[in-house]
Amino acid sequence: MEAVAGWEDLPPGEKQARLLDQALDRKREILAVTMPDPGDDSIEATRLRALILTAADSTINQTIALRSNMLALADGNRDAEMEQLIEERRQQALLMIEKMREP
Q1: CA 77, 78, 84 angle in degrees (round to 5)?
Q2: Which helix (H) or strand (E) holds 13?
Q3: Residues 6+ apart with CB under 8 A from 45
Q4: pLDDT in the model for residue 46
Q5: To 10 degrees, what angle do helices 43-101 and 12-32 make?
Q6: Of 65, 85, 63, which is closest to residue 73 (Cα–Cα)?
Q7: Of 27, 33, 88, 103, whose CA–CA distance to 60 is shortest?
Q8: Is residue 24 within a helix (H) or strand (E), and if so which, with residue range?
Q9: Could you read off the pLDDT tens digit of each residue along the chain, which spans 103 residues?
Q10: Which of 6, 45, 51, 75 could in theory staple to 40 by disulfide, Cβ–Cβ 3.0 to 4.6 A?
C-alpha cells in the first residue's frame, strides 16, 4: 500500500474510501490481464487463470448483491406506497359506509 501523507489524520470514512479505490484499481488491473493460452499448464499460467477468474467471480457476486439490495429497497418503497394506497381506500370506504348509514 502506498504511503499517504497524513493518513493518521484522515477520518475513517476517507480512509475506507481510499482503500476501496485502491482495491478497485487492483481488480481492474487483474481483469485487464489477458488470459494465458489454454494449453499452457505452467504454474504461472494456472495461478494467473485462477487470479483472473477469482476477480471476475467476486465482481459478479458483488454486483448481484448490490443490485439485490437496490431491488429490495425499491420493493420496500413500493410496499409502503401500496400500504398507503390501501389505507386511503379503506378510509374512503369507511366514509362511504357512514354516509350510507345516515338517515
Answers
A1: 90
A2: helix 12-32
A3: 36, 37
A4: 93
A5: 120
A6: 65
A7: 27
A8: helix 12-32
A9: 456 678 889 888 888 888 888 888 888 898 899 999 999 999 999 999 999 999 888 888 888 877 777 777 766 667 777 778 788 888 888 887 777 777 6
A10: 45
Give the residue carrying C-alpha cell 481488480.
Answer: 27
DSSP letters, 52-102, are: HHHHHHHHHHHHHHHHHHHHHHHHHHHHHHHHHHHHHHHHHHHHHHHHHH-
The answer to whether 45 touches 36, Cβ cutoff 8 Å, is yes
How far from chain centre, in Å, is Cα 52?
Answer: 21
Please identify which residue in the block is written with the cell numbers 378510509.
91
- Give the pLDDT score at 47: 94
Residues 51, 45: Cα–Cα separation, whole Å: 10
User: What DSSP state is assigned to residue 36?
Assistant: P
